[in-house]
Amino acid sequence: MAEHRSMQRAALLDAARSLLSDGGTEALTFPALAERTGLARSSVYEYFRSRAAVVEELCEVDFPLWAAEVEAAMAAVERAEDKVEAYVRKQLELVGDQRHRAVVAISASELDAGAREKIRAAHGGLIAMIVEALAGLGQAEPRLAAMLLQGVVDAAVRRIELGAAEDSAVITEAAVGVALRGVRG
Fold first, then answer.
1. Is the pTM of this model over 0.85?
2. Would you say residue 123 has pLDDT above 90?
């Protein structure tokens, strides 16, 4: 029974990712979740009390996986400057990943305080990953520099997500260039 519930919950989260990725937050409804998973609408409420609860769980499940990929890319290189480049490149590489598209859709929506706090905490974890490398590059305020660096990444993500005129590879190279020139001081 517990395994069945776990599988149903995972199917609902997969459906939620797909809905968010394809249609944004407006597409994430309980009737749509029910349709995508073959469950009765009332059954969806057995797993999640609200749309915000679905969003919170997606954040709890997906952000750590995404952050682990960024962290692994940074761990694969040694120099602080290379860590900064890996930090930027890996996040931009993940833009096409359904988990990321869902997170972007979630972030753009109106959320309750709990979901917003989970997103803030997850982004804080990403920022914390790069602080040491920035300190190693001589940044006087490495945490502030990390927040600004994440702003560059976020701007590049938005540009890619909008289907900008530039190819995503061009956007990535520009973001890496801006980031590396900026962190060198």
1. no
2. no
